[in-house]
Amino acid sequence: MKTRIKELRARYGMTQEDLAKKVGVRRETIVFLEQGRYNPSLRLAHDVAKALKSKIDEVFLF
Amino acid sequence: MAQKENGKQQLIAVAAAILVLLSALVDARLSFALAIAGLFAISFLMKDKLWRQAPFILASIMIAAVVVVVLNSQGGPSLPGLAIGGLVGAIIIALALYRRKKGVVLNDERTIAIHNRSMAYSWWVSYLMIAILFWFDYSGYMKLTAIQFGGAILFTMLISHALIKRYLLSKGDSG
User: Chain B residue closest to A38 (CA)?
Assistant: First the structure.
């Protein structure tokens, strides 16, 4: 699954570590999410979208 | 709602404690085994963090104590050897606790899913190993003692779990 996490993260000047702390996951999970190698649960997708002040379908491109 | 949940937790804990005490009247070993099983059950059933972690740690210590007693009674590894193993384990746990205290997230939904998946795979690998060893022994190709058989299964499970987990972690997902 493609995501816009990297782009949105850069917009808000957030590091992977910052985002990971904000949503309560390991930094590696953010790395895999950005690379599209991990399909998150709906809850995590919601938390990431919320942290990036966006809607889920704006962050995760199905 | 939380109060109701706490009440339920305490009721289960009290019931488990009574069961253990009653079993002590029958047999001390049964009581010990039930105590371990009860603590694990409490740990898995409870929602509250303390109620989940404390019984799990206590049950693990009790199992470790049993292993030490069994190994010593059968002339297994020496006590200094076990002490070194214990020290290494303590250091690993201390490091994990230190990282957690620093706010590092050690486990999330991805790592938990990977852990569970690798456990399932390692169970299958161990099952295969049991089948192979059983037929080797049955056909007379090799004769194994119980300790050799148990050791082979134990290490197959441990090593296959570690390897599969490492592979899935590098892959990124459990699927």
Answer: B173
